[in-house]
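testing teh design pipeline on a random one, pls ignore if ur not involved
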């Protein structure tokens, strides 16, 4: 099968059941969906909807109770912990709300870490290129305390990019940023998707973030209750964020 001839993500009847004492909780209840290579989409839902569980499944951080998950053509549904760790490092880039940077480590070395785990040679050049892609080519030696929140998140994005993953999963990536820094981070994500063709999935409760993507998948009670194309996605930085009341 040639690269690009299959969906980057294919989920069929995925379930995740947690045993809570005598009760079973279906965090995911028979979810099926496909994501094509190069998509920019959001997964939304209120607290308890299953979106965090969905992210754990997509990120190979946890195994489903049932169903099939294929990532870039590879069935990861039955993999053991070591195999999951390997597929995460090779296929998935993560960006979290809290940045997850090492406090005493310069930006260049932060971005090199996934390459060290993967045993990659010429790490410095790849890490430098990833930082240049997010506009931090002049901040290679800066530690997190010497960077703004927006710049720290850019380091995290560069770290997610450096292994050239099949997808980037971004969990509330602007949640700890002011509106200006958040818009700048969203601009980077949109540019990486548009110019580099990277598949990007946001997991968010924020309708404003979702409106910057081209597709919104909505979860409720562990099921997909909406899957809609966004006719005219917002371009990051070109529109003021409305008040919270206007978003709902």
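output:
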């Amino acid at each position: 099968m040639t690269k690009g001839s299959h969906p980057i993500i294919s989920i069929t009847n995925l379930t995740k059941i947690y045993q809570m004492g005598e009760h079973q909780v279906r965090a995911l209840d028979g979810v099926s969906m496909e994501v094509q290579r190069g998509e920019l989409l959001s997964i939304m839902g209120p607290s308890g909807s299953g979106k965090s569980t969905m992210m754990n499944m997509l990120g190979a951080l946890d195994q489903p109770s049932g169903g099939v998950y294929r990532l870039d053509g590879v069935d990861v549904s039955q993999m053991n912990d070591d195999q999951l760790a390997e597929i995460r490092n090779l296929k998935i880039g993560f960006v979290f709300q809290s940045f997850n940077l090492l406090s005493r480590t310069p930006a260049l070395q932060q971005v090199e870490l996934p390459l060290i785990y993967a045993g990659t040679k010429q790490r410095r050049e790849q890490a430098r290129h990833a930082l240049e892609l997010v506009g931090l080519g002049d901040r290679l030696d800066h530690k997190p305390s010497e960077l703004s929140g927006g710049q720290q998140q850019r380091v995290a994005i560069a770290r997610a990019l450096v292994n050239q993953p099949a997808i980037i999963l971004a969990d509330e990536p602007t949640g700890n940023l002011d509106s200006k820094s958040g818009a700048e981070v969203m601009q980077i994500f949109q540019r990486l998707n548009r110019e580099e063709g990277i598949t990007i999935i946001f997991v968010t409760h924020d309708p404003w973030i979702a409106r910057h993507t081209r597709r919104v998948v909505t979860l409720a009670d562990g099921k997909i209750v909406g899957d809609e194309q966004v006719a005219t996605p917002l371009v990051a930085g070109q529109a003021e964020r409305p008040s919270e009341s206007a978003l709902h």
